[in-house]
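Take one record.
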Amino acid sequence: MPQHLRIDFVSDVVCPWCVIGLKGLEAALERLGGEVTADIHFQPFELNPNMGPEGQDLREHISQKYGSTPEQSAADRAAIRERAAGVGFTMAIADDSRIYNTFDAHRLLHWAAGQGRQSALKHALFEAYFTQGRSVADHEVLVDAATRAGLDRARAGDILSGDEFAEEVRGEEELWRSRGISSVPAIVIDEKYLVSGGQPVEVFEDALRKIAAEQAAASR
């Protein structure tokens, strides 16, 4: 019997390494299909909680936040595009890309979890932002993503028009901060093992196999 694991994937929808990490994790789980199964729960983390809905030029943002030169920023984007392509994802970040506030996206993801469509929405949001270059602070973009994920369009619009699930998302963000999560992606397995960053498939595969074996031994 495969060993079943709970995976909490703490991330933001404008974090490129979160895309790479998720695709790597999913590929590892596919490779381990006969040994490990898992439920992935997406947990909220905002890289820029104080950012306005209009967003900010990505190069300007990276320069201000990390002190990167334009040349460093361009090299980093090229490396990210290459890593994303390696896991089958088209990352179209460019010189004119912008970064956005993601709180409303996290509210929709919280709702989607109860509908059994959280993973589908997460992928739709990643594609909207990173592949299509759309604003994930824009309610129309969010409703379109929800619709592509198989969620009710009108209900998504109703959620976004008010503050539904805001308290729940704030509480979840604080919970993960209180557990020491300060950067993403942070992949927490069975509430006790942490894998950080957009790791290669092989790293996830090795970690999951070892954790599953340890958990199986502990349950005997």
